[in-house]
Amino acid sequence: MELKRRNFLKIVGGTALVGGAALSSLAGGEELAWASHHHGSSAHGGSHESASHGEGHEEGIMPSGTRWAMVIDMRKCSEQKNCTACIDACNFVHNIPSFKNPKEEIKWIWKDEYHHVFTDISTLDPFVPEKIKKTPFLALCNHCDNPPCVRVCPTKATFRRPDGIVAMDYHRCIGCRFCMAACPYGSRSFNWLEPRLGLKGRKLNYEFPTRMRGVVEKCNFCVERLAQGLRPACVEACKCGAITFGNLADPKSEVRAVLKNNYALRRKPQLGTKPSVFYIIS
Amino acid sequence: MYDSGKVIIGLVIFVAIATFPFWFGMGKAAPMPEPQLPKGKKECVESKEFMRSTHMQLLNEWRDQALRDGDRTYVNHEGKKIWISLQNTCMKCHDNKEVFCDKCHIYANVKPYCWDCHFIPKESKQWN
């Protein structure tokens, strides 16, 4: 029998109906699964309020139940003029070489101006207090939930750990610097020079390696210290208690308490990278 | 055959030169490397034989386990737990790589890149 146009349309329509129904029932099932998962996470959060707090981060919380995060209280930090305790501690603990030329320098944690750290807000809103414009802000790797550096790395030398830390495997880094181009925060430095040249005469930390020439390095949220149950070096070194570190996935943690009681900013939120470093401005 | 005298002399010279390394080194085996074990330390991570044959694979596994999986505890064949770290476990005992690591590595002409980054107090004086 020759297939008539009318019959053809009937068959197509019928198939579409049956297929559509099957698909929507599948999708419904998924939705249900998602809802129960969400319900589970909010039950974990204790109360509805605490579950909704830091909503953007919920999805970044991995099954490990740990999501390391940092809150920098600029009200306390800016009071300590010319204090570099956290930066010095980090430089020592990680054997970070010092090179004077800004093109060659290696930075894990450093101070920068307001309009460099908050490029977006500072451009959109020029009417901020002069005091804040002049405050040097601490900058470091944001350990994003959605890290662009990890996405572009061709060798998976940089990767996201289950606890949210964006780590570097220097054994695998080929020095292509894609990650440096991808990072919107300038948190990565390339070793143009032999890093050990920048450590001449410096006190070394024998517990931590140096890097080699030709790899990209950055803040590692002190994974090696966290593994030993210690807090990051910068947090420990800060005398005024401006840096809070803890588990964002734990509603009872110190970071969550600080974030609950203060309004905190993250850098360049519109990029969707979801940083784990928060700033309390004033 | 034309110029057979010259050809044969040439062949003899070629064979002599090509086989030079073999007959020159005949009977003169390079001495076996004798790495110095740390004094006063009886046991390593695994048995002596295992470490001798497999330390490179073990170190590769350690690197990935510690760095990529974030699991820094190794359980050896005796069930003993060991903290995974080249610098803080291995080289705390083997604190002189010149008399230990380098001995065999030079003999076998292998150049591991471990020490491009990892270091020990003694050796770091050369560049610090």
Short description:
The complex is a heterodimer of chains A (282) and B (128). Chain A has 282 residues and is an alpha+beta fold.
What does this molecule look like?
- The complex is a heterodimer of chains A (282) and B (128).
- Chain A has 282 residues and is of the alpha+beta class.
- Chain A has 13 helices and ten strands.
- Chain A has helices at residues 5-44, 48-52, 55-58, 74-77, 85-93, 114-117, 119-124, 130-134, 148-152, 178-182, 223-226, 233-237, 254-261; strands at residues 68-73, 109-112, 137-140, 158-160, 166-168, 189-190, 216-217, 243-247, 264-265, 277-280.
- In chain A, the strands form four sheets. A four-stranded mixed sheet of chain A has the order 8-1-10-9. A two-stranded antiparallel sheet of chain A has the order 2-3. Chain A has a two-stranded antiparallel ribbon with strand order 4-5.
- The relative contact order of chain A is 0.19.
- Residues 31-56 of chain A have low confidence and may be disordered.
- Chain B is mainly alpha-helical.
- Chain B has a domain at 43-112.
- In chain B, 47% of the residues lie in helices and 5% in strands.
- In chain B, a hairpin with a 5-residue loop joins strand 1 and strand 2.
- The termini of chain B are far apart.
- Classes of the chains: A alpha+beta (282), B mainly alpha (128).
- The interface between A and B is medium-sized, with 24 and 17 residues.
